[in-house]
Specification:
The complex is a heterotrimer of chains A (316), B (285) and C (249).
Chain A (H helix, E strand, L loop, with lengths): L7 H17 L7 H26 L8 H14 L5 H23 L4 H21 L1 H4 L5 E2 L6 H23 L2 H11 L1 H6 L4 H27 L1 E2 L6 H14 L5 H16 L4 H18 L3 H12 L11
Antiparallel strand pairs in A: 1-2
Helix pairs in contact in A: 2-7, 2-8, 2-10, 2-11, 2-12, 3-4, 3-5, 3-10, 4-10, 7-10, 8-10, 11-12, 11-13, 11-14, 12-14
Chain B lengths: L1 H29 L6 H18 L4 H24 L6 H23 L13 E4 L2 E4 H23 L1 H11 L1 H6 L4 H23 L11 H14 L4 H21 L5 H15 L12
Antiparallel strand pairs in B: 1-2
Chain C lengths: L2 E12 L2 E12 L3 E5 L6 H8 L7 E6 L2 E2 L5 H7 L1 E3 L12 H7 L8 H5 L6 H8 L15 H13 L5 E5 L7 H16 L3 E5 L4 H6 L2 E6 L2 E6 L1 H6 L1 H6 L5 H4 L2
Parallel strand pairs in C: 3-8, 3-9, 6-7, 7-8
Antiparallel strand pairs in C: 1-2, 1-4, 4-5, 9-10
Helix pairs in contact in C: 3-6
The chains are: A mainly alpha (316), B mainly alpha (285), C alpha/beta (249).
C-alpha cells in the first residue's frame, strides 16, 4: 500500500537516479576500502530485495535465504577453475533455483512462523555438510576463488546485477503476478477460493528470489575471493531478514535501502566485529517495535508531511 | 556402542521432553512462536556458570536462582516485547529472533566466544556395560522426569492448569467462561521460560557453555512439535525420544558433526511425508 | 436432468466430534438449493469439505460426474465450483477491481455470456452486477460490511462458476444491501447458474428456492421443497425454540 502511495513513474525515476549516482560515485571515491564496502552493500541489496518477493509480498518470512546465495557461491568455488565465467553465473543461478525447489517442497505446506523455522534449517544443513565433506568443500577453510574481475570491475558488475534484479523484481511486483502475491499474503485461503493456485505462486516466488540471489552469490564469492561454511551461518540469513525488515518489507526497494543503510552503518562502526551484530539486532528490535514498516514506511510518512511537493523523502 | 547410544539417547530424550513441553506451552496457549526460547536456555546456562564458577555458590541454590531468573526473564519478554504486537505472528517472530541474536551477542561480549565449563554437582559416576555415566547425567535424567511429572500435575490438577488448557482449546470460549486469558498467556510464558531455564541449568555441567548453544534446543523443540503434534503429552515424549535416539545414532555411527542434521532431516521428512505428525495432531492445517 | 453436484455419504470429524455424518444429496443443473440448520449443524463444514478446504474423512463429492473430493481448493474452482466465506475475507492491500481481476476464470460456467452482451470485461460485468462498479478503485478494506459481502460474491462469480455456494450471504447486511443481494441472486438463478446457499433467516429467499436441505448435528434430517420442509415433523422438532426460520417458509 505504501509502495503505491507514490506514483510508479516517480519510484522508477528515483531508482534510476540512485543507481546512476552509485555508478558515478567511483569518480570521487577512490579509496579501495570504501569501494569494497559499496560493492558489499550492492550485493546485500540484491540479496535483500530478492528475499522480499517471497517474504515481503507473500508474507512468508524466509529465514534461510543464505542457502540460495551460498549455493551460488559454492557453485563458483567448485566450477570457477573449470568453466567460463558466463557458465559459472548460469550454474550459480541453477544451483540456487534447485535449492529453492528442494526447500519449497516441505516449506510450502506451512504457513507463517512455521515456514520461517523450517527455512532456517536448510542453510544449517548445508553448513554441516560443508564441514563434513571436506574433500570436496575444503571443510572449515572453504575454497579459494580467483576473481576474473578487478575491484572496480566487481563494483560495476554488482551494480549492474543490482539494477537488473530491481528491474525484474519491480516489473513482477507491479504486475498482476505481484498483485496475486499480495493477495496470497493478505489471505491465502481467500486466494484459493478465487481459484489461485497458491502453491504454484509461492514456489514461483521462491525460485525467482533464489535465482537472483544465486547470481548475487557468484559475485559475492568473487568479491570475497573465498567461500566457506560461514556463508550458511545463522546470522548470514538473519542479516538479510534484518535488512529487509529495517528497510520495509513488501516494497522491493525498501530492503535494498535497508541493505545499504545497515552495511554502511555496520562498516562505520567496524572497530569490533561483534558490535556490528549487536547493533543490527538492536536496530531490528527497535524497528519492529516502533516502525514496523521500516525506513520505507518512515520515508513515506515524512514525504507526506513535507507536503505533496513531488520531491525527495520517499524515493531516495 | 549401541549401549552408548541407548544411554545417552535416554538422557537427552528426557531433556528434550522438557524443552519441547516448554515450547508447546507457549505455542499451544499463546499461539506464538518464541524464537528467543533457546536464548533463555543459553542465559540460564551462563547464569549457572557465573553463580557456580565465579561466585562459588552451591549447585542447588544456583540452580534455583537460574530458574527464577529465567521465569522473570520470560515475563519481561512477554510484557515488553510480545504483548504489544501479539496479533501479528510475523512481528513476534522477528522481534523474538532479534532478541535471541541480541542476547547471543551480549553473551559474546560478556563471556567471549570461548566455551565455558560448569563443574558438576555430583562428581563421579558409574560404569554400565562398559559405558561410563556420570552421576550428574543420572541426576539430570531423574530431575527431568520429575519436572515432567510436576508440569503434568500443574496442568491437570490445578485451577491454573485447567485455565491454561481451556485457553489452549478455545480462547474465545475460555474468555466467555470468565477465564482471564491474558493471565493465562503470562502464566504460559513464565512456565515455559522456567522449563527452558531448568533445562539449560541441568545440562550446563555436561555441555560446553557457549553463546550459540540456544539455537539447537529451539530447533529440536520445533522438530518434536512437528513430529509429535500439539497438546499431547505422550506424543511429545515419544517424539522427544525418537529425536534424541536419532541424534545419538548419527553422532556415534556417522559423525558427531552431523548430529543436528539428523534432527533437521526428521523435521523435513516429517513435513514432506507425514505433515500431520505421527499422531495426526500436527501443525499443518 | 443429471445431477451437477452429488454429495455421497460425506463424513467429517473434528477431535472426536462428528461435524458431518454420512450426508448425501444431489443438486441438479440450474437448481437453487438452500441449506438450513441451527448453529453448529455442520453447514459451513459441509461447504469447506465440498470446496476442498477440508478433506472428508469418508464419502465423496462428485461434480459434473467427476470426483472432486481430494482435489485442492483452486483445482475445484477451476472445475467450475466457487464459494464465498461467511465472514468476508477481502484482500486488504488490493482495490475492488483488482480483487475481482485476480480471480481465475474457469471454463465451466456460462453466466457472463447469458447475463451480458460480452462487450464488457469480466471485471466490469461482475462489479456492475453487484453494484460495486462505481467503487472499483477503492481499497477493499475501506468498504462497508455489506459491500464486502457483495465483493465476496463478485470475486466468486469472476471465477465463472457453474455452481456457486454462498455461506450466509445475508448475515450482517442492511435492508438496502439485502434487496441488492436478492436481486443479484435472482439474476444469477435466472441466468441458469446453479446455486447452493446457506441461509436460514430470510423467508423471501425460501420462496425463491426450489429445494431445501436441513442439517442437524451433522446429519441430514430433511430434504424437499420448501413447502414439504415446513411440514416435516422431524425438521419442526429440530427447530423447536428457534422455529421462526422454517415455520413461515
Amino acid at each position: 500500500m505504501i509502495a503505491r502511495a507514490l506514483p510508479r513513474s516517480m519510484k522508477y525515476a528515483g531508482v534510476v537516479a540512485a543507481l546512476l549516482g552509485l555508478a558515478l560515485l567511483p569518480l570521487w571515491v577512490s579509496n579501495p576500502y570504501f569501494l569494497s564496502v559499496l560493492t558489499l552493500a550492492a550485493l546485500y541489496a540484491i540479496f535483500a530485495s530478492s528475499w522480499d518477493i517471497l517474504s515481503g509480498y507473500i508474507g512468508q518470512f524466509n529465514f534461510g535465504h543464505a542457502a540460495f546465495f551460498g549455493a551460488g557461491a559454492y557453485a563458483t568455488g567448485f566450477l570457477a577453475p573449470h568453466i567460463p565465467v558466463a557458465l559459472v553465473f548460469a550454474a550459480g543461478a541453477l544451483a540456487a533455483a534447485a535449492f529453492a525447489l528442494l526447500m519449497g517442497l516441505p516449506c510450502l505446506k506451512l504457513r507463517g512462523p512455521y515456514l520461517s523455522l523450517t527455512t532456517l534449517v536448510f542453510p544449517l544443513i548445508l553448513e554441516r555438510l560443508a564441514f563434513t565433506f571436506r574433500d570436496i568443500t575444503g571443510g572449515e577453510y572453504g575454497l579459494t576463488i580467483a576473481s576474473p574481475l578487478s575491484r572496480i570491475g566487481l563494483y560495476y558488475a554488482s551494480l549492474v546485477l543490482l539494477a537488473a534484479t530491481l528491474a525484474v523484481l519491480l516489473a513482477v511486483a507491479d504486475s498482476r503476478i505481484g498483485r496475486t502475491f499480495r493477495a496470497i499474503g493478505d489471505d491465502d485461503q481467500a486466494a484459493m477460493a478465487a481459484g489461485i493456485n497458491t502453491t504454484r505462486y509461492k514456489l514461483g516466488a521462491f525460485v525467482l528470489g533464489a535465482t537472483l540471489a544465486g547470481l548475487g552469490g557468484v559475485l559475492y564469492s568473487y568479491h570475497l575471493r573465498h567461500v566457506g561454511p560461514e556463508m550458511f551461518g545463522l546470522f548470514t540469513s538473519f542479516q538479510i531478514v534484518i535488512m529487509g525488515v529495517v528497510g520495509g518489507t513488501g516494497t522491493i526497494l525498501g530492503p535494498a535501502i535497508g541493505a545499504y543503510f545497515l552495511t554502511l552503518l555496520g562498516e562505520s562502526l567496524r572497530e569490533i566485529e561483534t558490535f556490528r551484530i549487536l547493533i543490527y539486532s538492536g536496530v531490528l528490535i527497535l524497528c519492529v517495535m516502533l516502525f514496523p514498516r521500516g525506513l520505507w514506511g518512515l520515508g513515506a510518512i515524512v514525504g507526506k508531511l513535507v507536503s505533496r511537493a513531488p520531491s525527495p523523502g520517499a524515493a531516495r | 556402542m549401541f549401549i552408548d547410544i541407548f544411554i545417552f539417547g535416554t538422557i537427552w530424550g528426557a531433556i528434550y521432553t522438557i524443552l519441547a513441553l516448554g515450547f508447546t506451552l507457549i505455542f499451544g496457549v499463546v499461539r506464538i512462536l518464541n524464537l528467543a526460547y533457546g536464548a533463555i536456555y543459553m542465559v540460564a546456562s551462563y547464569l549457572i556458570y557465573s553463580l557456580v564458577s565465579s561466585l562459588g555458590l552451591a549447585a542447588v541454590p544456583a540452580w534455583c536462582l537460574a530458574v527464577i531468573a529465567s521465569t522473570l526473564f520470560g515475563v519481561v519478554l512477554y510484557v515488553v516485547f510480545v504483548y504489544p504486537m501479539r496479533d501479528s505472528l510475523g512481528r513476534v517472530l522477528i522481534v523474538t529472533a532479534g532478541i535471541a541474536i541480541f542476547l547471543q551477542e551480549v553473551a559474546v561480549l560478556v563471556y567471549s566466544t570461548e566455551p565455558r565449563y560448569v563443574p558438576t554437582v555430583l562428581p563421579g559416576g558409574l560404569v554400565i556395560f562398559d559405558v561410563r555415566v556420570t552421576y550428574q547425567q543420572i541426576l539430570t535424567l531423574f530431575a527431568a522426569a520429575a519436572l515432567v511429572a510436576i508440569l503434568h500435575a500443574i496442568l491437570v490438577r490445578t485451577r491454573l492448569g485447567r485455565e491454561l488448557r481451556a485457553v489452549a482449546q478455545d480462547t474465545e470460549m475460555a474468555s466467555l467462561m470468565g477465564i482471564p486469558v491474558e493471565r493465562a498467556y503470562l502464566t504460559a510464558m513464565a512456565l515455559s521460560s522456567a522449563l527452558a531455564g531448568a533445562a539449560g541449568a541441568l545440562v550446563a555441567p555436561f555441555l560446553t557453555v557457549n553463546p550459540e548453544m540456544g539455537w539447537s534446543p529451539l530447533l529440536v523443540a520445533f522438530t518434536i512439535v512437528v513430529l509429535g503434534g500439539l497438546g499431547s503429552l505422550w506424543g511429545t515424549i515419544v517424539a522427544a525420544f525418537i529425536v534424541a535416539y536419532a541424534e545419538n545414532l548419527t553422532a556415534f555411527l556417522i559423525s558427531p558433526q552431523l548430529r543436528d542434521v539428523a534432527t533437521f532431516a526428521i523435521m523435513i521428512l516429517t513435513l514432506v511425508f507425514r505433515p500431520h505428525g505421527l499422531f495426526g495432531k500436527g501443525i499443518v492445517e | 436432468m443429471s445431477a451437477l453436484l452429488a454429495v455421497e455419504d460425506l463424513t467429517k470429524r473434528f477431535r472426536g466430534l462428528v461435524a458431518l455424518n454420512r450426508v448425501s444429496f444431489d443438486v441438479a443443473r440450474g437448481e437453487f438449493l438452500i441449506v438450513i440448520g441451527p448453529n453448529g449443524a455442520g453447514k459451513t463444514t459441509l461447504f469447506n469439505v465440498i470446496s476442498g478446504f477440508a478433506p472428508p474423512d469418508a464419502g465423496r463429492v462428485m461434480f459434473a460426474q467427476q470426483r472432486i473430493s481430494g482435489l485442492s481448493a483452486p483445482a475445484i474452482v477451476a472445475r467450475g465450483l466457487a464459494r464465498t466465506f461467511q465472514i468476508p475475507r477481502p484482500f486488504k492491500s488490493l482495490t475492488v477491481a483488482e480483487t475481482v481481476d485476480l480471480a481465475r476464470p474457469s471454463k465451466a460456467g456460462a453466466v457472463f455470456a447469458t447475463l451480458h452482451g460480452g462487450h464488457r470485461s469480466v471485471v466490469e460485468h461482475v462489479l456492475r452486477l453487484v453494484q460495486l462498479w462505481e467503487r472499483r478503485d477503492e481499497e477493499a478494506n475501506t468498504l462497508s460490511q455489506g459491500d464486502l459481502k457483495l465483493l465476496e460474491v463478485a470475486r466468486a462469480l469472476a471465477t465463472n462458476p457453474a455452481l456457486l455456494m454462498l455461506d450466509e450471504p445475508y448475515a450482517g447486511l442492511g435492508p438496502g444491501e439485502m434487496a441488492r443481494l436478492t436481486q443479484v441472486i435472482k439474476d444469477l438463478h435466472g441466468a441458469g447458474l446453479t446455486l447452493v446457499i446457506i441461509e436460514h433467516k430470510l423467508r423471501e429467499l425460501m420462496r425463491l428456492a426450489q429445494r431445501v436441505v436441513v442439517l442437524h448435528y451433522g446429519e441430514k434430517i430433511g430434504d424437499g421443497t420448501p413447502a414439504e420442509i415446513s411440514r416435516d415433523p422431524r425438521v419442526l422438532d429440530a427447530y423447536m425454540g428457534g422455529r421462526g426460520a422454517v415455520a413461515h417458509a
